[in-house]
Amino acid sequence: MSHPATPRVTRPRTVLAMSGETRAAILAPEALDRLARVADLDPRLLVTDFGADDPAQRTGLHQAEVLFTGWGCPPLDPAALSAMPRLRAVVHAAGSVKHHITQDVWDRGITVSTAAAANALPVAEYTVAAILFANKNILESARVYRAARSRVNLLERFPGVGNYRRTVGIVGASRIGRRVIELLRPYDLRVLVHDPYLDETDARTLGVERTALDTLAAESDVVTIHAPQLPDTQNLFDAPRLALMRDGATLINTARGSLVDTEALVKEAATGRLNAVLDHTEPEVLPADSPLYDLPNVLLTPHIAGSQGGELHRLADAAVDELERYAHGLPFAHAVDPRTLHQQA
Fold it and tell me: What pTM did the predictor assign?
């Protein structure tokens, strides 16, 4: 009786390619130790420039079978790839691979994995916290209480607050959007979703209502954006669409700042008609005189929704998990599909 062959376990020659700051933040000593057990790795070699005139780097890249990347990895263009004739896989210990994975990588048949699923978790958690706080009108109630410094008549001042049977609109059934949907399931909320790639079967499976974007904007108490940055999504929430939103509604943006027309949002928020929670803006860092810093109905955070601090270690763990799968001859659990990469944030 024959038995299936046991996958051959290897220690693939692996090189780190990321900024020094990224390595220090992501690869704690425990993660480096585990990485060294899984892979044949020189922990002293860190590539920040594929064209650097460094004999040790040239030798390491020439022998590399796997590139372990992070934020700050330079683009893998033809010149970079020519220095890595044995390269078979790229394992990215962060989210999007669009900054360094080029068409040349796919043309060479190199497999790519990303820790984007792990990076989606803190963004979704931030979003759910913002949704629940928005429906409780936390910013305004805190401001009122701070000013009064005495008992506040809540039924009089905030008669419509709360999360019971409120409507949340999710723009983009992405990794993050789907995780937000999952985390919202315990709450008594109506969830609308707009995504051109989401069909009715998927919507039913997710337990959400698939709607047109204008309908979502008009019917939601909170709108949260999780769509990718594409030509078609530039200023997705422009002045006419923002005008569709209900009085007192909240717009949350943890996606790209370019999906919201900043000038139009400033005008709406300045009237007090709409609230906003913004972790991404256009430009990424607003001018010091932007009204969004000071409006009482706007919560502006410095791109903190994604993995930060101890959450960065989750990215390293996820990436090492993928490298371990590769070493055991198994397919990546989070391989990047070049055919759908354009749909992703």
Answer: 0.91
